[in-house]
Amino acid sequence: MVIITKSDLTQKDLDSGLMEWLSDHDESKDQEEIARYTENEAPITLSTLFKSTVFAAGLPIVASEKFDRLCEVFRRILDKEFDKKKCDLQKNYKIEMPRDDKDSTVGVAFLTFANHFEAQRALRHINKLKLDVSHTLRAVMVDDFDLIVSDGANCVPAPKSVGFTREDIRSWWFEGERMREQYVIRYADQTEIHWFDPIESEPSLIYSGERERAEGKRVWTDQKVEWSPNGSYLVFYRRPGIALYGGPNFELKIRFEHRNVQQVSFSPGEEYLLTWDGTSGQEKHENSICIWHVITGELLATFPTPEMSPKGGDFPHFLWNHNGQYIARLNKCADGNEILVYKLPEMVLISDAEGNPAPLKYGAEKFDWSPTDDILSVVIPGTPDTPARLMLIDIPSRRELSARNVYNVCGTEMHWHPRGDCFCLRTTICKKTGKKGRKQFTQLEIFRLRERDVPVDTIKIEDATVRKLVWEEGGNKRFALVVKNEEMSTFSIRFYRVSDEGTARDTVWVTTLDTQPQMNHMQWSPCGNYFVLACLGSEGTLLFCNLTDNDKVEVLFKDEHFMMNMVKWSSCGRYLATCVNVPMPSHSTVSSSDTFRYSAEAGFCIWTFQGRRLCVSRKENFYSFEFRPTPPPLIGIKEIENIKKNMKEYSRKYDLMDEKAREIYHAQYMAKRKEAKEIFLKEATVLLEWLSKQELYWEFKKGWDDFFDQRNWEVTEDVFEEVIEVKEEVLD
């Protein structure tokens, strides 16, 4: 609102009578107008931020004739440093050096980059960079400069953490009385989190976004949700970025701004987060992958999507090590592929023998981390004349722990034991038979990493085609092979044990379970021993099985969940969820055929690990079901094995606890039922008293009684006969 007074007008304006057209000034009216305009659109303000500009001090002071030379040398030094540290930046960043009245530089420079992400990344490499013996740069973001140089008495240091704390993040798990399970479901426009306790008849709702709807939001989220690996956070996918919710009340903890994120990957300890926007490697988008510090929300690094994935497929492109200290990726370069291993949080490459950051030059095709150690398994592809090579490499020393050459390889898969005790390299071997014939078979190389010199067992499977290999969860060194006999067209599951007792050290085939061709999915319980076989996508047959410690297979129960297409174990291994999910709609795609195929049966069932169905729920437009994961156990492997051996003693204890909880629940249920009945009878009594005072009621009652009075009716009985069929027979 612009206020014009008489003093603002010229004499010519006054003579022309302009004052008659001006309204009297009313401040209250002005404030009302401003408030009304602000409701429709926020007032435009001038931004004073320079998010993409870095301030650097410590440059040489030179005269005007050496100015161009200084700019050229300074840019060359920066480019060399960025290339050395593998810092991918757009090369056309702007360098500005202020000069004094004598046209000499003042020892500072302003560097403006393409965006805020590049500026943050460059700052880490510019600060403390040595130009020569007598000149070392000190760099800060321009937006932080005023705070740094302000008066010390009034200066408020920037907080080291601008995110949140872990207080109450896991209280639901540590403080739970009965260690109940939690799960989250997405259906239609709803997102709901439930407690699940088998003693109660129905799951109990914890939260479904009431606060968000009270703030005016139509839905909590319209995209997918998932848990972090240890269950600390609930991850919400939104168009502007990722949001993490946590705590007992599921409050918003932090947001990460990265548009159209398609996938995320947490470090094993949930300290770091990787987000990917789904763009392909050919697009060369500089910020396709972002790596964040979860607690502070700090952006550590950004990358374009790599052209290669270490496990194949579209995701993941980066793999975390077992404790989140390192992250690695494949990089395609002119002289072959290389593995880049970054150390966090600095996001710098690990050093070579000379102490310089450098990649691992192995020409790798695939790699993977050990689940428990800083060991990389690397596959180097072969050629018709050279063998494929498998290497186990210690990080960060780069020491080669073991290696294996395999000839005539046409396909490889890597499988780590869940505790890192063993590693299996599954190769498909192609050999010539005769002049034109070729024969394929599967060969397994089992590495024993806990034994001296890492011995290797070799298994050749020539009588069947291997479809899948799955290590048993838990401490047992057993794995399952899903195979098909091509000659007989039969399917079976072969179980192997890596034997290390006494002098018997070999990988042996212990038992076989014959299956039907439609059983296309096998999944171990997180606790081991138990597993489920499922027919996904059509019949929905379920087999609940147990592989005993004596290597015998027991089929515990057989059931079905028609049209199920997803199987999920709870982290404790007590429960199994089978789901019929419909694909989540996308704004860029139309509904797929699967949407109509699964919509009629959409929902989920929860079972015990023995096959008893506990809960059935049908939901229209059901998208996903996720049990909440639990953190790793606080006790060691030996303690867990001891608990398994003494399971009967623990069972008695917890059976008594369950029985007591069942009695309490039954008493509470009956009390609620009695209370509801009393409330109903009380309200019914009030209604009957009111009804008895109505004149029309008595007229209606008299007419009703007269209508049903037997004395007013005459009962008669009429018999009707109808010929249904006539049949003639000749009698002798």
Automatic annotation (TrEMBL):
Residues 52-144 form the RRM domain. One of its GO terms (biological process) is formation of cytoplasmic translation initiation complex. It is found in: Cytoplasm. InterPro entries: EIF3B, Nucleotide-bd_a/b_plait_sf, RBD_domain_sf, RRM_dom, TIF_beta_prop-like, WD40/YVTN_repeat-like_dom_sf. One of its GO terms (cellular component) is eukaryotic 48S preinitiation complex. Keywords: Cytoplasm, Initiation factor, Protein biosynthesis, RNA-binding. It holds the Pfam family eIF2A. PROSITE patterns: RRM. The keyword Cytoplasm applies. GO terms for molecular function: RNA binding; translation initiation factor activity; translation initiation factor binding. Belongs to the eIF-3 subunit B family. Component of the eukaryotic translation initiation factor 3 (eIF-3) complex. Component of the eukaryotic translation initiation factor 3 (eIF-3) complex, which is involved in protein synthesis and, together with other initiation factors, stimulates binding of mRNA and methionyl-tRNAi to the 40S ribosome. RNA-binding component of the eukaryotic translation initiation factor 3 (eIF-3) complex, which is involved in protein synthesis of a specialized repertoire of mRNAs and, together with other initiation factors, stimulates binding of mRNA and methionyl-tRNAi to the 40S ribosome. The eIF-3 complex specifically targets and initiates translation of a subset of mRNAs involved in cell proliferation. This is Eukaryotic translation initiation factor 3 subunit B. It comes from Babesia divergens.
